[in-house]
Amino acid sequence: MHTDDESVDLVVAGAGGGLAGALRAARAGLDVIVVEAAETFRRGNNTAMSTAMIPGAGTRWQHEAGLADSPAVFRADIDAKTHGQADPVLATALAEYSAPLVTWLADDLGLPLELATDISYPGHSVARCHTVPSRTGAELLDRLVSLARAHPNIDFLAPARLVGARTDETGVRAAVVEYPDGTDEEIPTRALLLATNGYGADRAMVERLMPEIAGAVYHGGENSRGDAVRIGTELGAATGYLDAYQGHAALARGAGTLVGWATVMHGGVLVNTEGARFGDETVGYSEYAATLAAQPGGTGWLVFDQRVHDLCTSFGDFRATVEQGVVLRAADAAELAERCGLPAAALERTLADAARHAAEGSADVFGRTAWEAPLRPPYLAVRVEPALFHTQGGLVVDGDARVLREDATPIPGLYASGGAAIGISGHSAGGYLAGNGLLPALGLAALAADHCGATARARSTS
Length: 462
Known about the structure:
Largest sheet: 6 strands, mixed
Keywords: FAD, Flavoprotein, Oxidoreductase
Structural class: alpha/beta
InterPro entries: FAD-dep_OxRdtase_2_FAD-bd (IPR003953), FAD-oxidoreductase_2 (IPR050315), FAD/NAD-bd_sf (IPR036188), Succ_DH/fumarate_Rdtase_cat_sf (IPR027477)
Radius of gyration: 22 Å
Oligomer: single chain
CATH superfamily of the largest domain: FAD/NAD(P)-binding domain
Cofactor: FAD
Protein name: FAD-dependent oxidoreductase
Organism: Salinactinospora qingdaonensis
């Protein structure tokens, strides 16, 4: 049992993106304890399950690629995608911090980041997503975990679940954790970072707050049960954007792997069980999840060709999908219809119409203009279903990741990041930009560590 004399500088609840905060604080000389609920977190949390895309606006990687970008351009993209609904303070803070964050991850932590220039993500006006070579969150998290476990200022408590926090008039005084045997412990601490993700694993909350996606597969961490929202509100914190989420319309049925939206952006199409397309797929994979969920049977087929297949092999999730044996191949539309159990005449018309618009570069009836190239036989297809990846609303925070009360004053020593915080996706699913999960997860955690460190230095000199 810890005593008040043994208070740590920072407790980080959640060993996903929160590890960026743990590492930044530890490297600044602070003592850190990481509390993690799952023993299998290295493969089971949302950071590990991501495609490791981290937006950075105005980085040296972009400059070397001849791409002009800036925080102002990124902020404009956020405003456009969210229709001006994103929290302005947080959107500005994260847009401005995005390039320094990517640079710190690469230069200080040694992550082998590269700019993904081969894929255009919906809503990003310029290529700004930086990622690791495998394009898997598992590689990203493995590197963060290895660094954190090797740092002498960081201790891990796992499995142990954060269940509460104790505060007084000065702010956070202790973190309350529960162990698998039902016992609990108070860990005296001067600060607490809530990095436990959102509430995607709480089916009741999902059904109440975002019913349009409640019937979809949940493809996220099992411990994303709304702990941060519960603990924060118990301490008087404000919440916001609780209807916001990241969905995905390309989860491979029967495999549980992510086919990936690069298939669409390189020219692929989605058809329903009637062999017809049902919208402009390029609006974004997040909002298209609910669109797919509304189709007959709540499922469909993602159709592409060999050219698209070859372009997507740089993504680890796509390779895993192929390895699962769920990608069907057919010599022509008639054979594809037979293999997929779709009406042949309808599918042939659908693919012919899409190919014509792609060849002409014209807009189809749904308004799609981004085609890249016509699909050509032989065709490939994967049965897909909609998924909820993670929620994007939570505790209201400022640009330093400090959790705010209803009157906009901060709760001293309490921080939130990632899905525990409000994020920058606005409301519902339509405002999600690729990287909107990892940028607040890593970025807010690092900003929290910086503020925590500054507070500790001020305390030591007072």
